[in-house]
Amino acid sequence: MQDVGLKAKNLSVFYGEKQAVKDISLDFNARQVTALIGPSGCGKSTFLRSLNRMNDLIPGAKITGEVWIGDQNILSPRTDVVLLRQKIGMVWQRPNPFHKSIYENIAFGPRYHGIRDKKKLDEIVEQSLRKAALWEETKDRLHKSALALSGGQQQRLCIARSIAVRPDIILMDEPASALDPVSTAKIEELIAELKQEYCIIIVTHNMHQAARVSDRTAFFLMGELVEFDQTDKMFTNPANQQTSDYISGRFG
Ligand SMILES: Nc1ncnc2c1ncn2[C@@H]1O[C@H](COP(=O)(O)OP(=O)(O)OP(=O)(O)O)[C@@H](O)[C@H]1O
């Protein structure tokens, strides 16, 4: 079982002249869910994307600070970004399966990382779909298009796809915001299952969801980290008035 967490130290992110994330230090524990909350535009997604260097893909974006996994600072120019994204998977707001079969969606990553053996790939596909609570619904249609799945199933497929390359950490950017309540509940159950093995960091706008799924919560405001604590404490007795106002719906 992995024991890998993540530490961000003095992380700042700029888009041109604009600073979207301001000197944030945060630790994320293995086998815990950490929720990032805050009003629109406060820098949650930018911060999240920095943790596996997805911001590298945005022209004009600049990151300073450090992000440590064990003894590796992943912001170092020496980091192999492909390997990094194997270790730190990402699930987006909208399910984005490849235009391929269910099987090929899952097998793509392991194959890319060198696994060719059909039996091994079959095993990975089954295990990943089982872990994403999607095996029973898909085992008889593995070679059918992933696009024929419902939105909720597609999102679980995307989670299965990220698990298939054996990450240590899974980043989720509002993974249920495009889904109906039943699919949302399934994703939340899945997050609770997955945290037994992974470090999960989730951006959510939904306060109830943050309270239900996370162990710790970080509240962001205008690019700054206002408060970070155990979720129970944050939602019942926050230390900061702005956190309290946001959580109780007085702004945001
Ligand atoms: N690609 C980009 N180029 C320029 N500015 C950006 C880019 N992405 C985000 N920003 C700006 O950075 C700030 C933080 O945005 P970000 O999307 O990280 O916030 P957020 O808290 O995740 O918002 P939301 O909850 O609406 O997704 C905002 O002012 C936004 O306009």
Automatic annotation (TrEMBL):
GO terms for molecular function: ATP binding; ATP hydrolysis activity; phosphate transmembrane transporter activity. Its main location: membrane. The keyword Cell membrane applies. GO terms for cellular component: plasma membrane. InterPro entries: AAA+_ATPase, ABC_transporter-like_ATP-bd, ABC_transporter-like_CS, P-loop_NTPase, PstB-like. It is a peripheral membrane protein. It is found in: Cell inner membrane. Keywords: ATP-binding, Cell membrane, Membrane, Nucleotide-binding, Phosphate transport, Translocase, Transport. It comes from the Bacteria. Residues 6-247 form the ABC transporter domain. Gene3D superfamilies: P-loop containing nucleotide triphosphate hydrolases. One of its GO terms (biological process) is phosphate ion transmembrane transport. PANTHER family: ABC TRANSPORTER I FAMILY MEMBER 17. Part of the ABC transporter complex PstSACB involved in phosphate import. Responsible for energy coupling to the transport system. This is Phosphate ABC transporter ATP-binding protein. It comes from Paenibacillus sambharensis.
